[in-house]
Every structure is written in structure tokens, then in C-alpha cells.
Amino acid sequence: MTHLNFKKRIYLLLFVLCIGSIMFISSHSQLFSSIRQFLFRQAPETIDIVEVTFKSDTHLSDLPLDFNVHIDHSLTTQLSHLYLGASLQDPLGHWIDLPIIDFLPSATNKETITISTHLTELSENMLITGPYKVIVSIWDRPPTEENATRLSSLSIDDALRIYNFKENFQEIDDNIWYSREGQLGRSKLSQERVNVSDGKLKIIIPKGSVDGGELQTTDLVHYGSYEIRMKVPDAPSSITGFFLYKAPDFHHEIDIEIYNQQDSTALFTSYYSGDAYHENKTLLTFDPTKDFYHYRIDYYPSSVSFFINNQLMQTWTEGFSTEPMYLMINTWFPSWLEGLAPSDDQVLEVDWIKY
């Protein structure tokens, strides 16, 4: 009897323990579920645009724009196609949307998507030249569809510079350029001193004279970026101008002027409302007569900025004309400098102009 009673107690104890365990597990099911999820959790799935690389940081609008979008992802589930969109913003704030590209993520967790497009086919008007912002995004469905979700995005300010024209001066095209004759300061400007040779525009200051030359566009130009690569002559008391101008004098003019000498100064000037509104000087840290250097004007409704060798030198936010003007290049002797004639021929050489 005693042995049977002991066994019954054991069975009863086991029964009570089982019932208790079941009740404990039932009342703490959420805790166990959380523990199970923690032990067997997976890393969240992500997709990121890590970099956008352009074939060149300067682009001519009539050529294909080529760039690569580099993507990292940790996608493990089976996905349908994703969608890559890219947009460019010009210096005036206008957007150009590129065609959407659909792609299927690879198993390597890395993607490089190549984009090639002609911007002139996507814009009805001539492009505004200068620095462009680029935004690239990945979507789970075409972004034009309702409820499309942006999965990743990368925005790049000043991603590249876009120009419409690059004049390499294989010849002087009379449809684009015009060389005037007349008096400017101490100098007699002459077409015969403006020519092209060796793939460069050359404006000659003859030895023993204070004469020069000038070239301008036949058409008016307006907002945009204007850049020149040039080597100025070594002719102290003369200057080389790269500028925007329209008659009458002292109303519509924005200048970069370089003193034609080894220890040189750059002069940034605007003429507006009948007077010289801005005049800013800076000493150059290089000899502009010894090699080719870059000079640039960025001209927009709210600002004018000047750059030398891609370094910002001066910015104005008022005090300049906002009307179309001619793009001009000249070398000459102003009356407010001494007027020392060079002992040898001196030459302004222009490698190219972009605008």
C-alpha cells in the first residue's frame, strides 16, 4: 500500500508540474516569441546608392551624357524589378528628368547601372550653362505611379558643369565671331591682327606699337557660364579682357581684365546704370604670360561670380546688367596706363572658349 501511495504522489506531482508549465508558457507566449525572433532574426534588407561617377566633370550638351550609379544592397527576398530615376537641376532651378531605368537586383549585392542620354533631346530650350545639381533615386515601382516608394536617394550639388559650345578655334567662323576695327584707348583695333594658327586664336600686339585686336560673338548671349583658357602677352601697360558687353557704354558690361605682365593683377568690373558700379582687384599668384590658365564668369539673374583656375575670386549679388550682351575678348592699351610699346611682337593666345 505504501508503495502504491508513493507512486500516486509522483504521478500527481508530475501532472501538477505539466499543468503549471503549460499555464506558464501560455501566459508568456509573447516573451518566448520575442526570444525566438531575437535568436533567429535576419539583418534588415537595405539598398543604397553609394556613389555616382561621371565620365567627365565637364559636359558638352550635344554629346551623350554618360555616368554610372553604384549601388550596394542586402536584398535576400525575391524582388521584382526596381526603378532608377535621375534628374538634373540647372543653375536657374529648372529640372530635367532622365528616362526611368528598370533593373533586377543581382545576387552579388552590388550593382553598377550605366546611364547614357542626350540632354538636348530632353529639353525644348537651349540649356543654361554652368554647374548642375544631380539627384538619383531608386523606387519600388515607376515613380510616376501612385504609392511608389523611394528606397534610396543621393543628391550631389555641383555634380558637373554643362556647356553648349566649345570653340577650339580651328578657324574663325564668321557666323559666330566678328572682329571689329576702331579706336579703343590708345590702341587701334585691326582685324589683320586677329587670326588663327596652330589651333589657337591669336591677337597680336606688333613690336613698337600700342595697337591690338578684338573678337566678339555675332549673337547676343544671356545667362550662363563663360570660360576661357588663355595665355596673355607680356606687354606691360596693356590688358586682356574677357567680358560681356552691349552698347551704350557704362550700362551693360561685366569684365575680367588681366594686366599683361609677369607680376599681374586681375580686375573684376561691372558697368551699370551709366557708371562703374563694381571694381575689385586681386593680385595673381602666378605669371599669366608664361602658361595657359582658366578664367570664368558665371552670370545669372541673382549673382555674378568670377573664377580663376576654378577658384572663386569675387561674387556680386547686385549692381550689374541683366540684359543679353555680347561675349568678347580683346587685348589693348588703355589710356589710364602708361602705354609702353613692346620691343618684340607679343601675342594673346586662346586655346578655347566654353559657353
Automatic annotation (TrEMBL):
EC supergroup of this enzyme: hydrolase
This protein's UniProt keywords: Glycosidase, Hydrolase
Ranges for domain GH16: 137-355
Active site: E253 (nucleophile), E257 (proton donor)
Catalytic activities: Hydrolysis of (1->4)-beta-D-glucosidic linkages in beta-D-glucans containing (1->3)- and (1->4)-bonds
Protein's UniProt keywords contain Transferase: no
EC number(s) reported in the record: 3.2.1.73
Protein name, entry field: licheninase
